[in-house]
Design brief:
Strand order of the largest sheet: 1-4-5-6-7-8-9-11-10
Number of domains: 1
Order of helices and strands: EEEEEHEEEHEHEEH
Distance between the termini: 31 Å
Structural class: alpha+beta
Radius of gyration: 17 Å
Helix content: 10-25%
Strand content: 25-35%
């Protein structure tokens, strides 16, 4: 993907604002696409607009999978209940991974680990200097929120954040500090985040 500008647009909350690209109003085209995943508008040198759907699926990680990624997802798969991959729909391109664990005693889903693919992660040594996609982290967190809803926890999830990311999680996802580095997304904020990507439940 070589797009210079990529925007994420919610399908079901049009008041969020649909931007015009070189005079082309894409709002009227969105009804053609399902609400699975998020809609990505890729703008290639302000000439070509592509609309793509993303999807998630549970995966089993093999020992030599994801070698260019920062974290060892094979080892993580032994610890997490679920590993989910975020993919461009109808392709094999994986652009993000999340591992999470059901904590029935806490009535919560604990997010063990989350990572964007090498080409979308500035901390990866093979990152080229320009992301292909934005918003991967939010879309993956929604998968944990979805699992929380399915377990009857009301969307409640929590995780441990690196110090430099605490303010980012607060601002972008409405997460709150519940410890020195432990953060939680409570029911109200979980609903807002869920609806941003999936529409109303």
């Amino acid at each position: 993907m070589n797009g210079k500008v990529i925007r994420f647009i919610k399908l079901w909350r049009m008041s969020w604002g649909i931007e015009k690209i070189r005079g082309k109003d894409v709002k009227n085209d969105l009804h053609k696409y399902s609400k699975e995943g998020i809609i990505v508008i890729q703008e290639d040198n302000l000439k070509n607009v592509k609309i793509l759907n993303l999807e998630t699926q549970n995966i089993k990680v093999k020992k030599n999978d994801f070698k260019n990624w920062i974290f060892d997802w094979y080892e993580q798969s032994k610890k997490s209940d679920v590993i989910k991959a975020l993919k461009v729909k109808d392709t094999s391109e994986i652009i993000g991974l999340i591992g999470f664990t059901n904590e029935e005693a806490n009535k919560a889903i604990y997010v063990d680990l989350i990572e964007a693919s090498p080409m979308n992660n500035p901390k990866n040594k093979i990152f080229r200097g320009e992301k292909d996609y934005f918003g991967i982290g939010g879309r993956l967190l929604v998968e944990a929120i979805k699992e929380s809803y399915e377990k009857g926890y009301g969307g409640f999830i929590y995780f441990d954040a690196k110090t430099e990311l605490i303010e980012y999680y607060k601002k972008e996802f409405g997460a709150r500090l519940i410890g020195i580095q432990r953060m939680a997304i409570f029911e109200k904020e979980a609903e807002i985040l869920y609806e941003k990507y999936n529409g109303k439940r």
